[in-house]
Structure formats: C-alpha cells, structure tokens
What we know:
Blueprint: H1 11-18, E1 23-25, E2 28-30, E3 36-41, E4 46-52, H2 56-72, H3 80-96, H4 98-109, H5 113-135, E5 142-143, E6 154-163, E7 166-170, H6 176-189, E8 193-197, H7 204-216, E9 223-225, H8 230-239, E10 245-249, H9 252-261, E11 269-272, E12 277-281, H10 287-298, E13 309-315, H11 319-330, H12 351-366, E14 370-373, E15 389-392, H13 399-402, E16 409-415, H14 418-426, E17 430-431, E18 433-437, H15 441-450, E19 455-458, E20 473-474, E21 477-478, H16 483-488, E22 491-500
Parallel strand pairs: 7-8, 7-10, 8-9, 10-11, 12-13, 12-18, 13-16, 15-16, 18-19
Antiparallel strand pairs: 1-2, 3-4, 5-6, 6-22, 11-21, 14-15, 17-20
Helix pairs in contact: 2-8, 3-5, 3-7, 4-5, 5-6, 10-11
The protein binds NADPH dihydro-nicotinamide-adenine-dinucleotide phosphate.
Amino acid sequence: MMSQQLQQVDDQARAFVERKHKLWIDGAGVDGAGERIAVTDPSTGAAITDFALAGKQDIDAAVAAAKAALKRSDWARISGHDRAACLYRFADLITEHASTLAQIESLDFGMPISMSRPMMGAVPAKHLRYCAGWATRLEGTTKTTPFAGTESGGVHGMTFREPVGVVGAIIPWNSPIVMAIIKLAPALACGCTVVLKPSEITPLSAEYLGELSAQAGFPPGVMNIVPGTGAEAGQALVDHPDVAKITFTGSTRAGKAIVSSVSASLTPVALELGGKAPSIVCADAKLDAAARIIASSCTSLQGQSCAAVTRVYVERPVYESFLKSLQRNLGQLKPGLSLDTATTMGPLVSKAQYDRVQSYIAAGRAAGATALEADLTLPEGEGFYVVPTIFTHTAPDMSVVTDEIFGPVVIVEAFDTLDEAITVANASPYGLFASVWTGSLDKAHLLMRSLDVGYVAVNGSGAFDAAMPFGGVKQSGWGREFGEESVTHYTRIKTVAVTYNVE
Ligand code: NDP
C-alpha cells in the first residue's frame, strides 16, 4: 500500500522513491552487498521503500574507485578552474532539482516542507559555489632565505598545498543533503576524491546527489555514495588503509570510537560532534525576541540540531516573564505531516530517536524536575512526534541538563550574577554553540569571550553561512566546517627546497 505522504509528492520525487535504490560507486548505480532494509516516513511510521546496505566489500570497491580516480582522471592535478566548473554545474543542477530534493528530504528525514524547500533552493548551491571559489585559490608560498646547510650554492624554498587523497566522509541523519554537501564541496574543491557514507536511516537523497554529480561532469570514482551502518560500512571506511582522511559528523560517542580506531593507522580525523548549547538571557535583553528565537532554536529540526539551544539561563528579575513567553511561543508551533505546507514542527527521525527522547523526558520527571509541555495537539497516527518540553527546577547532574538529547527539550533556570551564568553555561563537556541576549555592549563582549564554545551568537540564533567557520571545542569536536578552515584541512603542505649552483 502506498504511504499516505508518498501520494502527495510530485511524479519525479515519487518515481525516485519507488524505484530500486542503489549505491553509487565509480560513476554507476551498484546493488549493495548487505541486507535490504526499509526506509520509513517518520511522519506516519510507514515504510516508503527499501535499499541494500553497503557492506565491507562495497566500501572496498568505493575506496578503490576513489583511489583510481585520483590518478585516472587526474582530478587532483587538473586546473582548479576545471574542478570549480564541475562544482558550479553541480550547484546549478541541485538548484534545478531543489523541489524534488526537498520532497525527498521531507519524506526521508521528516523536515517540514516549509523549511526543506527554501533550504534546498539556497544552502547546498551556495556552499558549492563558495567552495568552487577556493579551487583556484589553494596556493603555496615561497621562502626566500632558507638556511643552506653545508651545501654550497643557494636555496629557494617553497610550499605546495596538495589534496590529502581519498576522503572518507561519514554523516548523520539530520539534514542529510546539507550534511553531504558540507563534506563533499570542500574536499572536491581541493582535488580529493570522496567516499561518502550517509546514515542508513536517511539513505535516499545522497543517491540522488550521486546521479546529479555525473551530470555535472565529475569523473567516475571522484564521488562515491555508500549508505550503510556505522558498525559495518562506517567502520570499514575508518579502517581502510587507502583512506587518507576521515571527516565525521555525528555523536561524541561515535567520534571517540573513530579516534580509537585510527590510533594504529594515525589517519587524520576531523570531528563535528554533539552540543548542549547554552543561552544567557540578561534582564536588559529584548525579551520577546529572545523567547521567540530561542523557541525556534530549541525546536529547529524538532531539536535534532547540534546547535539547538537546550539550556537557557535567565537573569532572575525577568525569569518568570521569559518562561511564559517561551511557553507561549512553543504553543504557536504547528505540528503536522512533513509534506503539509502549514507544518512548522515535524516528527523525530525514527522510532529509536523517539524512544530515546521520551526516555530523557521521563528521566527528568523521575529525577524531580518540573516539566512544562507546550500546549500543542500532535497529529494522530504512528508518526514519531514529541511535545516540546521545558524543564525547570533541575539539578546540574540530571541527564536532561548534562546530555545531548537531540529532541525538543530545553531547560530554563534563573541566574543572579554574570559570573554565575558563565560558570553554569561552561559546565558541560560540550562546547559547540552558545547564544547571549543583552542590550549592553559591555556584557555582550564580556560574555562572547567568556564562553568556552566554538561559535557565539549575540542577540540572535547565528548565521550559518559557507564563509562562517562552525565547529566545537572540548568534546564537541576537532576542526571547523565552513570558511577557509573547512577547505584547507583537506590539503597538506609539502615543503620543497631547490638548491642552485651546487658544486
Ligand atoms: P551517530 O554518531 O550514531 O552516527 C553518525 C554517523 O556515523 C552515522 O552515519 C553512523 O552510522 C556512523 N557511525 C556510528 N558509529 C560509527 C563508527 N564506530 N564508525 C564509523 N561510523 C560510525 O549519530 P546519529 O546518526 O545518531 O546523529 C545524531 C548525532 O549526531 C547527535 O547526537 C549529534 O550529537 C550529532 N550531530 C552533530 C552535528 C555537529 O555538527 N556537531 C550535526 C549533526 C549531528 P549509523 O547511522 O549506521 O549508526
């Protein structure tokens, strides 16, 4: 029986979802070696299609194709202009197919179509075009006065910025298209080839990207897509001796496991891991804006966002009014099916994620915190919807305070002094994102420098732009996505000394 939502997508999206799904290796669709598993629409809990998991032998084939493509197509050595041309064509194609991609993303991940349409129309293409610009700007340096040692003659020193080689990219299920592009664009711009492993929970959109990449002119093997489990496909990619770099986005737990795995090979790893973002709201802030934007942040992607604000510390004189305003804003969300254009809050991605979030909410209640549910009516049926929940009267060691829940759950507590607010905000193993709300320039500057995180938003929810570095400190990761740093870490420096007039 066709799922309720699948009947609503256009012919192109339905034809794609209903066809037999494949891995994308060496420029062609390939049947995966693993078992076929169902892909579920999280809005209804109904299976919409299935696909074969990538197994270890598929990872071996994809890495071999990526390695061969480095030489066969000379991808690493062709002019940056030619690589940029492929990235620009890829950006144009994604824009052309944005509507289909948005429908697939909403069906597969549960992102409301009111969000996935504008996102697919802008974000991936912007990111690809930004990185395309870097393809012609990866330059080495010259060193005019190197020490010549014991040799006669002079020495000219120089550096080359070279692509690292085959990149293994592992991404989670939240916003799979944007996650894929964030990894693919800079690596390809540098002349690397890529084996991308999407989560097996959201495998569909990356396959579509693989096919568009061929139309964009990327040579076979430059981009390979192998959705599979972390335990088998992810592990095989991390352990593969021909993978020169792993770039990973996901949980801190899996990030640590990957670091352990590469301790023997010393394969370099970039990690975008979890967060538990604090927000400090001072009494002199624009409270209505703060409550509105924090309500949107903590329920963005249904709370399945590493930058979602999940701990709010409010200056005591405005605590009660902020809390009421936050509750009121959460009550204005429109939960619904992901393809309904009126929906502003969709379901969680899977039954497992639903159970995980519900168990955190139950643990918070059992530990004695006060739970305030948003006044919302959830869609009936088997979808994975969770009512956004505010916790107050928490203790610092409660799991709702310490753990990344990845659902629409936020704690709100009062503070008396800025020192106290900074201390509680920093009392987390995570250090990804924070926001501060104040009308005082002095307080804004003090807070932005005092918070132990990689990104601070002042009086807003931040700008997530291809040019703005994003990443964590502490257990939120190593390295940065976006900006120059996200590009250069797919390169390595080679130093060359040329001796002249040697006798
Ligand atoms: P996981 O860490 O479980 O998985 C992320 C990806 O890694 C998936 O493709 C997964 O495969 C794979 N994987 C898991 N274990 C291993 C392993 N040992 N070796 C290789 N690959 C592995 O996270 P989720 O997919 O559940 O995503 C949610 C988490 O991601 C959140 O908890 C959040 O912390 C984090 N996240 C961080 C972001 C950031 O930018 N900092 C952004 C988005 C998410 P499989 O699906 O089969 O498990």
